[in-house]
Amino acid sequence: MNRVGKVAALAGLVALLATGCSGDEVLRFGWPVGVTEQAGKMRWLWTWSVVAALVVGAVVWGLIFWAVLFHRKKKNSDPTELPRQFQYNVALEFFCVVVPLVMVGVLFFFTATTENQVLSKTDHPDVTVNVVAFQWNWEFDYPGEPKDATGQMIRTIGNSGEVPILVLPVGKTIQYNLRSTDVIHSFWVPEFNFKRDVFPYPEKNNQDSSFQNKIDQAGGFKGECAEFCGIHHSMMNFEVRALPADLYARYIQARTQINPATGQPNTAAEALAALNCGQLCTPHAMTSQPFNTDRTARAATR
């Protein structure tokens, strides 16, 4: 038994080292990497839930192996002899009822606590964005920011020739107000580890049409519609560009200015290009390309 234990421990060590995973990746247990403060809270709930499940599993496996190894039927024993019986063992029955109830209660407590933290909202977010979904694109409005040079709200509307860019600041509390103009859509950014259905106005099924988060790192992240909404659903993409607070302030300022080449306020892509901060400010450098809504323009392939 001692030799078997050593071989098993060595095999486990080799298997762990052979994966080439870091400690953070091991403790992630397959949970996707998130870029928001709320995603981190969900990740830790997942990690400790898996650890607890592994501990319970190890105890159960240990009891199974203990019964198999030490309570096997003896050779030359009476075939009619039964193992020791435990009917009406109050202590054992109490243990088997109470312990699972405690485990479920603890899991429920931490799940509800994490859910409340993820869905909590402050009354005074730093940035508010109105997200309007329509077949088959997105509109992003900034009601709390200064108006552009024409006196209109800063607005980004996607079309078949341009993927809309939702520019957001890093380290600020952001509120997303969701609304659809036609059918049910779903606002999903995989790196947020969060998605929410977008219902037509007025809201249906008592749906909470807003949520808040705080992005932890700068970068470009692809967003998608996660609810089938028609023929071009798979192409209903957008791009989230998270900028440091100083760059975000410059971006908003650029959106309020007139582009001399067009005579109109800068679009999201033009304002990003004006920041001149490398790939982080290069329009559509990090996500998918726009789609063509003309079905006759697609040639058949063989």
UniProtKB/TrEMBL annotation:
It comes from Amycolatopsis pigmentata. It is found in: Membrane. Keywords: Copper, Electron transport, Membrane, Metal-binding, Translocase, Transmembrane, Transmembrane helix, Transport. Subunits I and II form the functional core of the enzyme complex. Electrons originating in cytochrome c are transferred via heme a and Cu(A) to the binuclear center formed by heme a3 and Cu(B). This is cytochrome-c oxidase. The chain crosses the membrane at residues 47-69, 90-110. It is an enzyme of class 7 (translocase). Pfam families: COX2.
